[in-house]
Amino acid sequence: MIETDDSLSGKSKAYKEQPRLYSNVETDNLTDIELNLLTEAIYAYRGFDFRDYARESLQRRVFNLMELEGLATISALQEKVLHEKSVMERFLLAMSINVTDMFRDPETFLIFREKVIPILRTYPSIRIWHAGCSTGEEVYSLAILLEEEHLIDKTQIYATDINEAVLKTAKQGVYPLSVMQGYTNNYMKAGGKRAFSEYYHASHEHIIFKPSLRDRVVFARHNLVSDASFNEFNVIFCRNVMIYFNENLQNRVNELIYNSLCRFGVLVLGSNESVDFSPRATSYKNIDQSNCIYQRVS
Ligand SMILES: C[S@@+](CC[C@H](N)C(=O)[O-])C[C@H]1O[C@@H](n2cnc3c(N)ncnc32)[C@H](O)[C@@H]1O
Q1: pLDDT of residue 10
Q2: Pocket of ligand 1, candidates 95, 96, 103, 108: which has the most ligand atoms within 8 Å of its Cβ, to mutate?
Q3: Given 61, 95, 129, which residue is the final one in a domain?
Q4: Are residues 148 and 256 in the same domain?
Q5: Binding site membership of 286 for ligand 1 (Cβ less than 6 Å)
Q6: Protein residue with least CA distance to atom 13, ligand 1
Q7: Does residue 135 have its Cβ closer than 6 Å to ligand 1?
Q8: Nearest C-alpha to atom 7 of ligand 1 is from which residue?
Q9: What pTM did the predictor assign?
Q10: Does ligand 1 lie within 6 Å of residue 166's CB atom?
Q11: 78 lines ligand 1 (CB under 6 A)
Q12: 25 Cβ closer than 6 Å to some ligand 1 atom
């Protein structure tokens, strides 16, 4: 017998009613499953490992991106990320919080000048790694400081980030004129010895840093989660990167940093970061605890 509308069973009739909504608990669970699938898929396909990123901030950033892309579900985003290169790039951009500043936390640079520069003076050559350099302001800040301390000519700086788009800005060294007043204030608080304007020239609404500040810098893509150590450094800056990782990932990155530091090498972390609770805590001594500057001692 052919089923007509009249002969539909009670169950089939239910299809004509409003779809029943899942409960909050069920959708939370589904969000978790979809986030796992998304991060696993991206890792399997492209090797970018977001599986151990702090969950709340990962979820918030994924939801923001879904809104920007006009997508209703994480699964829909996954489909786009895997099949459209431009969406993958936007995903990487959304995942990396790129907030940065010239002489960010100026006191840290002041203390670096007072306590770390005397150590570096004793070395015949110096290798420095900015891991997670974002758009490069931290790198130019240190290059200026090293120039003022007459150490730049014997220094090689490696500046890396997971994100190609921010590296492009970093390489260009071009920043909006509107942020220069704040940067100049930070430079002075960080113990700057000259007029900050000596380091750039202004053109229309932008400033361009002196190309000589880049002479000693190599900018390159490097993923702290999945790439290996690539040299031994006298100084590593890894500031405001690990705050976005969960404990497991922080420990892995701390291990990579430890293995990339020379004995007596100096580690500079962000103001909310510390090695104190990492498995390598006893391998470091504090150079300045309140500014998160450590020295590898074993
Ligand atoms: C908040 S910014 C910090 C920039 C600068 N270090 C500072 O303190 O001002 C964090 C940077 O870490 C980068 N990042 C995030 N995950 C990374 C990873 N797995 N490997 C390398 N860089 C990463 C982001 O792309 C971003 O540019």
Answers
A1: 43
A2: 96
A3: 95
A4: yes
A5: no
A6: 132
A7: no
A8: 100
A9: 0.83
A10: yes
A11: no
A12: no
Residue type at 7?
A: S
Which ranges in 96-246 belong to alpha helices (H)? 106-111, 117-121, 137-148, 164-172, 180-189
- Phi, psi (5° rounding) for residue 199? -95, -5
And the tokens for 92? 């990487």
In terms of domains, do 154 and 226 share one? yes
In a domain, 4, yes or no: no
User: Where in the chain does DSSP place strands (E)?
Assistant: 126-131, 155-161, 174-176, 200-203, 206-209, 217-221, 233-238, 261-269, 284-288, 293-296
The answer on 290 and 154 residing in a single domain is yes
- Is 163 touching ligand 1 by the criterion CB < 6 Å? yes
**Domain assignment of residue 1, yes or no:** no
User: In the structure encoding, which two tokens stand for residue 202, read together?
Assistant: 């202004």
> What is the total count of domains within the chain?
2
Nearest CA to ligand 1 atom 27: 134
pLDDT tens per residue across all 298 residues of the chain: 333 333 334 444 444 555 677 788 777 889 999 999 999 999 999 888 899 988 998 999 999 999 999 999 999 999 999 999 999 989 988 887 888 999 999 999 999 999 999 999 999 999 999 999 999 999 999 999 999 999 999 999 999 999 898 999 999 999 999 999 999 999 999 999 999 999 999 998 999 999 999 999 999 999 999 999 999 999 999 999 998 888 999 999 999 999 999 999 999 999 989 999 899 999 999 999 999 999 999 9
On whether both 111 and 213 belong to a single domain, the answer is yes
Residue nearest atom 17 in ligand 1 by C-alpha distance: 162
Q: What is the rounded distance in angstroms from the CA atom of residue 254 to the CA atom of residue 266? A: 13
- Scanning the structure block, which residue is given the tokens 């500043």? 101
Domain limits for position 43: 14-95
Edge-to-edge order in the sheet of strand 174-176: 174-176, 206-209, 200-203
Q: Is residue 101 part of a domain?
A: no
Ligand 1 centroid to 251 CA: how many Å? 16
> Do residues 199 and 72 share a domain?
no
Are residues 166 and 237 located together in one domain of the fold?
Answer: yes
Q: Is the CB of 271 under 6 A from ligand 1?
A: no
In a domain, 147, yes or no: yes
Q: Are residues 122 and 45 in the same domain?
A: no
